[in-house]
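Retro notes, structure queue

What went well: the backlog is down to a handful. What didn't: a couple of records were mislabeled last round, so from now on we paste the full input next to the output in the thread. Example, using tRNA 5-carboxymethoxyuridine methyltransferase from Orbus sasakiae:
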Amino acid sequence: MMNADRNFDDITGKFSKNIYGTTKGKIREVIVWQDIENILNRWPSHQKLTILDAGGGQGQIAYKLAALGHDVTMCDISQQMLDIAKHNAESAGLSLHYYHCSIQQLAQCVDHPFDIVICHAVLEWVNDPQHVLATLKAHLKPNGYLSLMFYNYHGLLFRTVTLGNFGYVQAGLTKRKKKTLSPDYPRMPNDVYQWLNDLNFTITQKTGIRVFHDYLIDKQKQQTRFDELLEMEKQFCRQEPYIHLARYIHITAKL
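Corresponding output:
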């Protein structure tokens, strides 16, 4: 399974430049963090939680949680991603637990459950998402919370049509090149909801990540009017129909 799923060692630098350091990355960070704070508020403010960031990439969320005093564990299939995460955390004087493994191999590294399990932007890169979700459940305590974000098929389809790439739509949105930042397996939201239901999760929140940003005709306004755009994202991201037009969907689910 580890070899079949996407490893980003070959394009680690692109993440910093093309995702984390952009307006779309800033929107994603702000909106997702709002949802994570809502999860954290389920416990007393002084309680130290055990948190797993599965497929945690460069660790932006993991070390924010560690800075709040929580016990944070990260795993990732990419050693380069983990190295960056560790460097950034140590530079901030933070201590986390790191494991270089796929999510499917977690049981070989970790033998205890967590209060919160985070898995962002992973489902769209794996060829057996249901196995991944089952593995995440196995590492979650009863009454624990899952923070799950995935690349939305509907958002990709809508964006593709608005760009006039009709051939790509007619080809079923199938990628020609695998070594890119465009996800291999965009997910149908109803499929993900059903998979979670089958695992006895209760979905408590759905949030659209970038419901407007990517559709702006004047791309300069992504930067020049960013503050206004962010406020609109915050206002509409948890309302229909905007949730299901977003480029990503973030789900909060309770076990």
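Agreed that this is the format going forward. Reviewer comment attached to the example: The mean pLDDT is 90.
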